[in-house]
Amino acid sequence: MLWLLLLDIIGLVCIYFLLRRKLRGDIGVENQINRIRTHFNDLTVDMNGATSRNIELLESRIKEAKKLLRRLETAIGEAQTVKTVPHEEPESGAPPAEEGSAEAASVRPPVSEAERESILKWHRKGIPAGEIAEISGRQLQEVELIVSFSKAENDKR
After folding, report:
1. 75 and 118 inside one domain
2. Domain residues for 51?
3. Which of 78, 84, 118, 123 is most exposed, with minimal Cβ within 10 Å?
């Protein structure tokens, strides 16, 4: 029985030293600093990855905006070219340009600011672009272009 008591005491002493060693390792200043460094490094890697993805996204949006700007500049150039070309009389036998045709559209005056505001007001009320085109006497593409430019301006803000 004495030897069981002695065995218990030895077991408790071993447990004490193991726990003491474990606590010193967990509480040690160097271990805490190493944990903080590891955590900080992980956060830095995560932040660098997120930043890199955001930069790539911004660059792709800038490329899309540049493409859209080039298309717009081309369309404006073509529209200005159409305005500067003098009105030609149709050749004999050729039918006159009908309202709504490409030739008739090139003769139309540009959209005034008041007309643009009216189109946007109707759009905000939920009137479809086709009906707005009929009401305003403009082509559907003109109405859609005005609405899309307005959305792009609002997105910039």
Report:
1. no
2. 26-82
3. 84
Within a domain: 45: yes
Domain count, the chain: 2
pTM of the shown model? 0.34
Residue 101 lies in a domain: no
Q: Is 137 left (phi over 0), alpha (psi -120 to 50) or beta?
A: left
Quote the tokens at residue 65: 């905006």
pLDDT tens, 33-81? 888 999 999 999 999 999 999 999 999 999 999 998 888 888 887 777 7
140's CB contacts (< 8 A; 6+ apart) are: 129, 130, 133
In the listed set 82, 99, 123, which residue is the last one of a domain according to the structure? Answer: 82
C-beta pairs of 107-111 under 8 Å, 24+ apart in sequence: 108/138, 111/138, 111/142, 111/146
The tokens for 76 are: 């404006």
Does a structural domain hold residue 15?
Answer: no
Give pLDDT, residue 89.
Answer: 46
